[in-house]
Amino acid sequence: MFHTSLVLLFSSLVASATALNTPRSAFSPSSDLHRRGLTGQIITFACFGGGGDCECPSDLNGDSGVLINVYPGYQCAYPNGACTWDDKSGALQNIFQTNCPTVSPCSTSGGCTCPTDNLGDTGVLINQFTGYQCAYPGGACTWDFGGALQNTLQTNCPTSAKCTQSGSDS
After folding, report:
1. Distance of alpha carbon 86 from alpha carbon 17, whole angstroms
2. Digit-coded pLDDT (tens) for 59-113
3. Could you tell me which residues are beta bridge partners of residue 83?
């Protein structure tokens, strides 16, 4: 008991001393603060090549959703970095990842498999999906392009929600 009280007292003193020595500008917004961008950083993602984005349906709670992902492709993990390819054309999506072969289409009969990378390493398939994902206050929902819900335990998601694009009937 005495030891715990001593630790709490010491922690409180350290926090107070730190606060006293911290400049006021660290706690309040200032007009001279600048926002840093992600200069030089590469973020891997796949883009839907079908001419537009999917519209998010209202979820079962009546909430509107925000489109957070549209995917056509597959990804493989390698010791020197993951590679992402379009599942139909095989075109490399993250072209600055130098260990990745530039083309690796999926087989029409056997699906997608990871090729040996440019360094001779074997890859592990970590993602193969064609569909879209929407974020809602009650949780994200993921559907394939046929409209079938993929994360069926997410209770706010409609079980069927085919991808529709604004200004079209598909």
Report:
1. 55
2. 999 999 998 877 778 889 999 999 989 877 898 888 899 999 999 998 878 788 9
3. 76
CA distance 159 to 97: 37
Q: Does the pTM exceed 0.70? A: no
Average pLDDT, the chain: 73
Q: Give the neighbor-by-neighbor strand order of the sheet with 141-144.
A: 83-85, 66-77, 124-135, 141-144
CB 97 within 8 A of CB 128: no
Cβ-proximal residues to 155 (8 Å cutoff; 6+ apart), any chain:
60, 138
Q: Which of 110, 68, 67, 112 is nearest to 89 (CA)?
A: 112
Q: Could you tell me the CA-to-CA distances from 143 to 88, 119, 120, 148, 160 in Å, in that order?
A: 19, 35, 35, 5, 8
Tokens of 156: 């706010």
Please, are residues 119 and 80 in contact by the beta-carbon 8 Å criterion? yes
Residue 45 buriedness (CB in 10 A; 0-12 / 13-18 / 19+): exposed
